[in-house]
Amino acid sequence: MSVDVDKPAEPPAAAPPAQPEPIKAIPVRHYGRWVAALVVIGLLVLLVRAFASGKVNWGAIPEYMFNADILKGLRNTLWITVLSMVIGIVLGVVLAVMRQSKNPVTKSVAWFYVWFFRGTPVYVQLFLWFNLGLVFQYIDIMPIYKDEWSDFMTPFLCALLGLGLNEAAYMAEICRAGLTAVDEGQTEAAHALGMSHGRTLRRIVVPQAMRVIVPPTGNEVINMLKTSSLVIAVQYYDLLQAAQNVGRDSGVVVEMLILAAAWYLIATTVLSIGQYYLERYYARGASRQLPPTPFQRLKTKLAGPNRAGGTA
Predict the structure, then answer these.
(1) Whole-angstrom distance, CA of residue 70 vs CA of residue 64
(2) Taking every annotated instance into account, which residue ranges of this chain make up the domain ABC transmembrane type-1 (predicted)?
(3) How far apart are CA 239 and CA 245, in angstroms?
(4) Has residue 5 got a pLDDT over 60?
(5) CB 3.0-4.6 Å disulfide test: which of 9, 93, 96, 237 passes with 176?
């Protein structure tokens, strides 16, 4: 015996959902940006107009750009900058290690050094080295060297000691910050493996601390290049001294100061580029993929979207 079962009626097909109307985005108008841009452009126009109307012999700047005296002053500036930074970095590392030491004597001496040289202006320190001849007539290192103080403390040595010893105090704090940024567990693990304290610093701690030390050190190099202009106080022949001498002899004083500023800008730009690539080198262990350099970005733009993306 069969029973008829009514099949349920199939539901009617649902109508397709209505497509939402596209959103019409209205950009927010930033009137303040336009006002700020106009104000800045106006100030730049006034500045350019002021220098254009002034009695500045702009032709003298390229004329004396490669003057022998100017180039000599530039070489001396770069030389004193490099040597002062070498002294500052080497002595700064030593002071940072001394600050980390458990020996109370070395730790206290390092703290006093940093306290003194960071607390007194470098300009005062330069004058102090230059005038120590009024206190000491001779320098006498018993078995090694003996001479009159005026012959020993030359303008170059005054500049080197004044800049280098002052920089060591700042580099000590930079290096100490880099050393303390490394986890102590790595030092304990290295000691557990039988590595000495010195080898642990060289092989484990310092390579990792460089990522923290390099950026502020690069800034210190650039700052040292500009601070070296203070050595004119101790009669050291640097770029600023050369520019003043040439300007006084040729009657273009302001123009030579602008020329000196241009050379300082060129030198600091070169140092900034070197700092950028040095930071990339030490950032390899912290970033899986480094951002492209400006030259790489420019090359990608010049190559076009097809070459940069592989396929269109």
Answers:
(1) 8
(2) 74-275
(3) 10
(4) no
(5) 96
Whether the per-residue pLDDT at 207 is higher than 80: the answer is no
Token output for 203: 């092989």
- Dist CA 236 CA 156 (whole Å): 6
**Cβ proximity of 188 and 195 under 8 Å:** no
Over the stretch 94-145, which tens digit does the pLDDT of each residue have?
A: 998 888 888 889 999 999 999 999 999 999 999 998 888 888 888 777 777 7
The pair of three-digit structure tokens given for residue 154, joined into one six-digit string? 């030359």
* In the block, residue with structure tokens 């001479």: 147
Structure tokens at 262: 């241009």
Nearest residue to 171 (alpha-carbon basis) of 93, 272, 82, 282: 93
**Helix, strand, coil percentages in the chain from 3-state DSSP, rounded to 5:** 70, 5, 25
Q: Cα dist. 155→89, 143, 170 in Å? A: 22, 25, 23
Phi, psi (5° rounding) for residue 196?
Answer: -75, 170
* H or E, element range at 148: strand 145-148
User: For 75, how many CA atoms within 13 A lie in the half-sphere containing its CB?
Assistant: 7
CA–CA dist 110, 114 (Å, integer): 6
Give the per-residue pLDDT at 54: 76
Per-residue pLDDT tens for 133-182?
Answer: 888 888 777 777 777 877 788 899 999 999 999 999 999 999 888 888 77
Helices (H) then strands (E): counts for the chain: 13, 2
220/118 Cα distance (integer angstroms): 14
Q: Do the beta carbons of residue 224 and residue 167 sit within 8 Å?
A: yes
Query: Sign of the CA dihedral 13, 15, 17, 19?
Result: positive
Least confident of 5-9, 60-64, 94-98, 253-257: 5-9
CA 29/CA 37 separation, integer angstroms: 14
The identity of residue 27, as a single letter, is P
